What we know:
Blueprint: H1 10-28, H2 40-62, H3 68-90, H4 98-125, H5 128-131, H6 137-150, H7 156-174
Amino acid sequence: MFILKERLNIYKIISIILGFIAAVIVFTNGNSISFKNYNLFALFVVFVGAISFALFSTLSKLERRVNLSFSVFLYFFWATIFSFISMLIWSKFIIPDIKTFILILINGAFINGLTYILWIYALSKEDASKIAPLVYLSPVLSLFWIAIIFKSNINILNIIAIVLVIASGLLVTLEDRL
């Protein structure tokens, strides 16, 4: 709203609230008291990461002077530099085995690289407020992957979160027609 000068209306506010509630349900498994059991520094880091991603998305929408792929390359270049520095400060350097290296390459090129290109492209074609609710799909879709890969059950709270995310996305998509 402040950077992109997009108007905030009641539909967008409700959409943001619904998406946020869905993310909290997934994160806490419906028990907001469980926040007390988390490491506050870890929650702070997650919060800073979320703010950084939001700022990245917003500034990406403003950047139209350079090639989209080049913008993503620059993002990953600087992310690599800062990640390497962080690793040297808080961890140690270990050369990955070939299987791990292939997984890292797949993660970097496809799971992150391609999705960031598509994300920035989507932001360039529509109001950020209409695209942003899709971010709330991440924790919900993670539930499905966890259920498939780790044979975990999807409970009623997960279903509620999915419904809230879908409602959040539909609300801003349909606001022009309401």
